[in-house]
Write a structure and sequence with these properties.
The complex is a heterodimer of chains A (159) and B (785). Chain A is an alpha+beta fold and 159 residues long. Chain A has 5 helices and 5 strands; from the N terminus they run E-E-H-E-E-E-H-H-H-H. Chain A is globular and about 45 Å long. Classes of the chains: A alpha+beta (159), B alpha+beta (785).
Chain lengths: 159, 785
């Protein structure tokens, strides 16, 4: 059965008729064509689909779109400033070579931003533990960890 | 003149799009009229297909078509080809059973494609795939390569009743046996090199379309070598002219080997697109990736090293049984032979080596190259043997390596390769210093005080990269050339677009290659763009695998640059009214010897496109050149890794305390990117040794490790931060002096880690992955013994 859903995505209202079983990630990718949010697994392990719902990182593959009814969704496409300037966390990933193929990157960045909001000066171990739900096969996490440490500091300095 | 760009830590040009969600991976491409595909896959490891009833699926909502093996047979689609012919010890060609696009009468592994369902949406296609009713007669299955060779084992293919694809050997067996008979010491190990599942985070995907307007196909596909994909698909499977097929592999989310190959799904969606006259897209879910991507490794090996009383290596004898899976994947046959046994000399002067490899079909997913491809397996053999021999003979493991290092180059190994250059002492010495081996003893004591077991292990690896001199590869059975192509298009106002046959899926070529070109042309890197991954744009390409891109693809670009600069010299000579022989070029500036006359590269480019004052009698206008480069030898990256672990004897948990890697990749273009490649390789190598192991159930042939919850790729808190550094001996036979860096970490890490864990436990050997359970059991067994 089709249902009508409405939410705010990257600051703009988004509304569509979708099948009840439509996942949030499918709504974002297929209906809204926001393809920066990726799907890397089917068991909620890899975190490539991570977006923010009402300011908190969630895995958009693990909830149906209906659950986001009325919510404020932020995807990777909405993270940089309107003029294209990268968010401090995005800039830190670039600066520290925290990405290679780029496929896990949107999810990493979304999770990292949420994590850094509550951890302005995280230890390496805290960062590694915070990445429990995000898999990367390219970087060995070494530079992702460095990027998140630097990004968290930059976010704290900027706020 | 710009600043020197070669050797600079320049941030990546590709990052902005990846960081803002603007990457375009295959599944991100949606074409007008897009349809979606799902594959019906075999739930059995081995079964005869008695019948397939597609009626319910065909009638389901949104379904456009259901195709089975009968349809592809009627369409005369050929089987998937193998790109490397291995000749048996008896002089016979390897057995090449048919590898159909959709199963023909029989399925041979869990995940084998049986039918293709196309529907308006992905959900409809997947729902309808559930409605395809296949009546199977199950057959006994065999998943273990040794068991598949046993008498009475179920045979997968008619042409190989003993499941043996080939028995292949290299080296002088008689001389090796004689050396063993005289040896003061022999070290022997028997082990399994565990089967791995590559797991690029982007699952495989393919989106085929057809245009009746010009009778042409376009395939968007997550692939590492689009021209090879096209060549194999058109010439060997679909019988299409190449110029009517465009293959686009844009942004690709990691490959690690698994996206080199031509897969049946790629062919099926391309073919179906013409039948339906609509684009057909298929994207694997992770569960599908686990069962259907080509796997890696899976060797069972008996290895022996003969030494004299001083620890000098006299000979090596290796016998390996390699599991190829159910069918021959694109390069499956060369991985456990040409890419494996030829590396068994390692960094050492071992004068005599014999290796025999038996490659076997089993009811498992096809096995092919995975990061390192043969070379990690070889390094594991050599470095586990060397470390074990050192322990048995009570020689320091670094010292036994030094006693055997090759120090004179070029060096001809007994297993076909000719090393051009290296300095193995330099990397070993640097690694020992960086790892603070001097302080190890006190750290071990400190661990012991806390009831923990500390261990130290080395691995000194070598790899052969830059594959390959085509003539050599051809003489060894390759059915393709292995050169690379590049094209430089200089635009009228002096900026440059470079087209390369190499393919980046995380390696950062858009930056590294631009550094090379911008440096030579003396321009800002922003003025150089790299284009790859589209057969309609790039003239040709053999693609990226085997750490070949900068050594072969980069050299092709350098050759094209030579032509650009040479033509520019003629134009500059004309503009400056000088003899061409008097004109000199250095990073963007043409000068006339002994004068202050000069012309900038941009002025020369402009003259080539606005040829008002131009040597029309001698030169064509324009500035666009291409080059093909076929290397004269492999390159030989090498390095030394030192791993220090602490094992908790109560839980069997291994913690990597330090991991130090010092590599010699020759000249380095972008150290930031090189470090990143090493980190990623190390993570995969550590994964193999510590957490990853593909497992099939022996009786049923079901894949037991079929998700991220059962097959553990390393997470951030499984890994340490790494200590990496490099030493440089420039490659002698390419103009950049480069060797390649993509696989090193995955090649050297497993042996270093297992050497460290066995040292900590005081055991001779331990199977990979060294999970807490495996380690704990080994400790209990040692206590009991």
């Amino acid at each position: 059965m089709a249902v009508r859903i409405s939410m705010k995505v990257n600051g703009k209202p988004a509304s569509a008729e979708v099948e009840e079983r439509t996942l949030l990630v499918t709504f974002l990718r297929e209906t809204l064509r926001l393809t920066g949010t990726h799907v890397g697994c089917d068991t909620a392990q890899c975190g490539a689909c991570t977006v923010h719902m009402n300011g908190r990182a969630v895995k958009s593959c693990s909830m149906v779109a209906m659950q986001a009814e009325g919510a404020d969704i932020l995807t990777i496409e909405g993270v940089a400033k309107a003029d294209g300037t990268l968010h401090p966390m995005q800039a830190a990933f670039k600066e520290h070579h925290g990405l290679q193929c780029g496929f896990c990157t949107p999810g990493m960045v979304m999770n990292a931003i949420d994590f850094a909001k509550g951890n302005a000066n995280p230890s390496e171990q805290q960062i590694r533990e915070a990445l429990d739900g995000n898999l990367c096969r390219c970087t060995g996490y070494h530079n992702i960890v460095k990027a998140i440490a630097a990004g968290a500091k930059a976010m704290a300095a900027g706020s | 003149m710009g600043e020197a760009l070669i050797g600079a830590r320049i941030q990546r040009k590709e990052d902005y799009r990846f960081l803002t969600g603007a990457g375009q991976y295959t599944d991100d491409v949606t074409l007008p009229g897009q349809t979606h595909a799902a594959f019906v896959r075999s739930p059995h490891a081995h079964a005869r297909i008695k019948s397939i009833d597609i009626s319910k699926a065909k009638a389901a909502e949104g379904v456009l078509a259901v195709y089975t093996g009968d349809d592809v047979a009627a369409a005369k689609l050929g089987g998937l080809p193998c790109g490397w012919l291995i000749t048996d010890v008896n002089g016979q060609p390897m057995k090449e059973p048919p590898h159909p696009v959709l199963a023909q009468g029989k399925v041979r592994y869990v995940g084998d494609q049986v039918a293709l369902v196309v529907a308006e949406t992905q959900a409809q296609a997947r729902d309808a795939a559930e409605l395809v009713e296949v009546d199977y007669e199950t057959l006994p299955a065999v998943v273990d390569a040794m068991k598949a060779r046993a008498k009475g084992a179920p045979a997968l293919h008619e042409i190989a009743p003993d499941n043996t694809c080939y028995v292949w050997a290299i080296g002088d067996k008689g001389a090796v046996d004689a050396a063993f008979a005289k040896a003061a010491h022999v070290t022997k190990l028997e082990f399994v090199n565990n089967r791995l599942i590559p797991n690029a985070i982007e699952p495989r995907a393919a989106n085929g379309s057809f245009s009746r307007a010009d009778d042409s196909y376009t395939l968007y596909v997550a692939n590492q070598n689009p021209h090879v994909e096209r060549l194999l698909m058109t010439a060997f499977v679909m019988g299409l002219p190449e110029h009517k097929v465009r293959v686009v592999a844009g942004d690709v989310g990691g490959g690690f080997g698994s996206k080199i190959y031509l897969y049946g799904e790629d062919v099926a969606v391309t073919w179906a697109a013409k039948q339906l006259n609509r684009p057909v897209k298929w994207t694997a879910d992770r569960s599908e990736s686990y069962v259907s991507d080509a796997h890696g490794r899976d060797h069972q090996t008996v290895a022996e090293l003969a030494l004299d009383k001083d620890g000098k290596f006299l000979a090596m004898r290796v016998k390996t049984t390699a599991n190829l899976g159910a069918y021959l994947s694109t390069f499956a046959s060369c991985v456990p032979t040409i890419l494996y046994a030829t590396l068994l000399a390692g960094q050492y002067t071992t004068p005599l080596i014999h290796c025999e490899v038996t490659s076997v079909f089993t009811n498992t997913a096809p096995v092919d190259a995975y990061r390192g491809a043969g070379r990690p397996e070889a390094t594991y053999v050599v470095e586990r043997l060397v470390e074990t021999a050192a322990r048995e003979m009570k020689i320091d493991p670094a010292e036994i390596r030094r006693r055997n290092f090759i120090r004179t180059f070029p060096y001809q190994t007994p297993v076909a390769l000719l090393y051009d250059i290296g300095n193995y002492d330099a990397t070993l010495d640097a690694a020992i210093k960086m790892a603070d081996v001097a302080g190890y003893a006190s750290r071990k004591e400190e661990s012991a005080r806390r009831g923990k077991l500390r261990g130290l292990g080395y691995a000194a690896y070598i790899e052969a990269c830059g594959i390959a001199p085509s003539a050599v590869a051809g003489s060894l059975g390759a059915r393709a050339g292995l050169f690379e192509a590049g094209e430089i298009r200089v635009h009228p106002t002096g900026s440059v677009t470079v087209f390369t046959g190499s393919h980046a899926h995380g390696q950062g070529h858009e930056t590294t290659f631009a550094q090379v070109v911008a440096d030579r042309l003396g321009m800002a890197i922003e003025n150089v763009d790299i284009v790859h991954g589209d057969t309609s744009k790039v003239l040709f390409g053999m693609g990226t695998y085997g750490s070949r891109s900068i050594a072969v693809g980069g050299t092709a670009i350098m050759k094209a640059l030579d032509k650009i600069i040479a033509k520019g010299k003629k134009i500059a000579a004309h503009l400056m009214e000088a003899a061409e022989t008097d004109v000199e070029y250095d990073r963007g500036v043409y000068t006339v010897k002994g004068t202050d006359k000069k012309k900038m590269f941009g002025e020369v480019a402009f003259a080539a496109y606005v040829p008002h004052n131009y040597p029309h009698d001698k030169l064509e206008p324009g500035l666009n050149e291409n080059a093909f480069y076929d290397p004269s030898n492999f390159t030989f990256p090498a390095g030394s890794y030192v791993c220090e672990v602490e094992v908790d004897p109560d839980t069997g948990t291994t913690k990597i305390e330090r991991f130090t890697a010092v590599d010699d990749f020759g000249k380095i273009i972008n150290p930031m990117i090189v470090d990143g490649q090493v980190h990623g390789g190390l993570a995969q190598g550590i994964g193999q040794a510590l957490t990853e192991g593909c497992s099939y159930d022996d009786a049923s042939g079901q894949l037991v490790t079929g998700s991220f919850m059962d097959y553990c790729i390393p997470r951030a808190d499984d890994l340490p931060s790494f200590q990496v550094d490099t030493r440089e001996t420039p490659c002698t036979h390419n103009p950049l002096g480069v060797k390649g860096c993509g696989e090193a970490g995955a090649i050297g890490a497993p042996a270093a880690l297992m050497n460290a864990i066995t040292d900590a436990l005081g055991v001779k050997d331990l199977p990979m992955p060294a999970t807490p359970q495996t380690v704990w059991r080994a400790l209990q067994n040692r206590k009991a013994a």
